[in-house]
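Data card: per-record layout.
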Amino acid sequence: MFTLTYCSDKQKNSNEPNPYYDRAFEFLEKKNEDSAYVYFDKAKDIFEEHKNRVMEGKCLINIAIISTNKGDYYSGQLISTQAIKYFNENDKDQFSYIYSNYNNLGISSDNLKDYKNAIRFHNLALKFANDEPNKIIALNNLGNVYKENKEYRQAIKIYKTILTNSKSNNKTYPTALTNLAVSKWLANPNYNPEPDLLKALKIREIENDLWGQNSSHSHLADYFTNKNSEKALFHASKMYEVSKKIKSPDDQLEALKKIIELDSKSYKISFQRYSKLEDSLQTVRNNSKNQFALIRFDSEKLKTENAEKEVGLIQRNIGLAALSLLLIGGFFLYKRRKKRLQQENELKIKNNQLKLSKKVHDVVANGIYQVMAKIENQENIDKNEMLDELEFVYEKSRDISYEKIDSKEEEEDFSKKISELIASFKNESINTYVAGNDKTIWKDLKISTQEEVYQIVRELLVNMKKHSQADRVVFKFERINNFITISYTDNGIGISGELIYKNGLTSTVSRIENVHGEIIFDTEIEKGLKITISFPI
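The structure for this 537-residue chain is written out next.
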């Protein structure tokens, strides 16, 4: 049995009254955790408005503990984790809150069978336990985790420590004595825990500790199960009686399960009780994660019902208000639509301008630069050939405004166009190399994609010529599984990350996006530049 501790002190700052917080504790004292949850949540919002982080964190801890008590261990763990950041672990005045939070994290982790973290959180709780009762609770919870994880040696060591320091405390002593006896028996089946278990039970009966009696009868029933079925049945029956008094359905199920195994005569009746209770409890557990949402829903529903009572008094005004809202809404919708159409028109104009600018850059700027590169790189220039190329650039620039497509160019061998383009940048100081540029590489590639690829290669070459100072440039083309990969490498000075998306490379990235591809820059200063481009067919 684990022990949870709420952050139960009242508000200390009278300048920030929050009636929801004190009201939440009133509900807790009445065992009404559903309502307490709602009021802690409301109090948290008020503290958040006042920027009182400590009180806000305390509300979160109490909400987390209620969630854990209700069996919603994941929520309890999550909310407690959120609460950690609200506290200063160097402030001793906050130790009791931090202790409660780590204690809840330990218990929720244990119930989720996460024993490693449960041990870690209970050790943290022990670190921040600032009084003897809290230290004993933390130690007992830590011992319980070790016991459940079958680390009996560690559990026994902890229970002995508690027993040594709690002989004067009638409630702590029987708990430690029971846990120690059970751990010794689990570690050594030949050990007889009966005297210590009965001693603890007697103290609990004197103190009228029903939860403790429930625990004692459970352990005694377990011990006698394979040794004395009559005694085992007696303690299982006593456990069932006590568990009904404390209204613990989980313990009732455990007791009935023991009775079913021990008493064949009442098997049918006990099994029926067990099945009925289990179904009922399972239904509650299945709804536990949604119960607080339902509480909030009921709260909103109540507000709605109260508002509906006033509808009859203001019905005519509502009609007029609705009509006014309709007219105002229609006016704003009209204005909004008009504005949207205007923006769409402006965007269309901008896109056309951008498209035109891009074509001018592709056709005129890069075309002229390519002609200049030929003039610069080739000794014997054919004047007529240069004039033809310039005339071609002129014709292309003239056709931009008419959006003409050169069908003749579409029919050309694309691999040849690429090779000629790369070769045009070769000169005495720059060597260009091409690998894999076969016709099969470009088979079934759309004309629009070919145009984008051509411009991408040209932009890489232009940027190389302008910026890289390279004397060796390599293009490698591959086609694998309907994907084409272009690898560009030069041995120039490289390019810094800040410059990657400047100049023509901005357009390059845009083109690659147009063909649904991707580009990877691998840059090392003084070691050249490597670019990998891939796109689908």
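Known properties of this structure: Strands lie at 431-435, 472-480, 483-490, 518-523, 529-536. DSSP finds 20 helices and five strands in the chain.

See the next section for split statistics.
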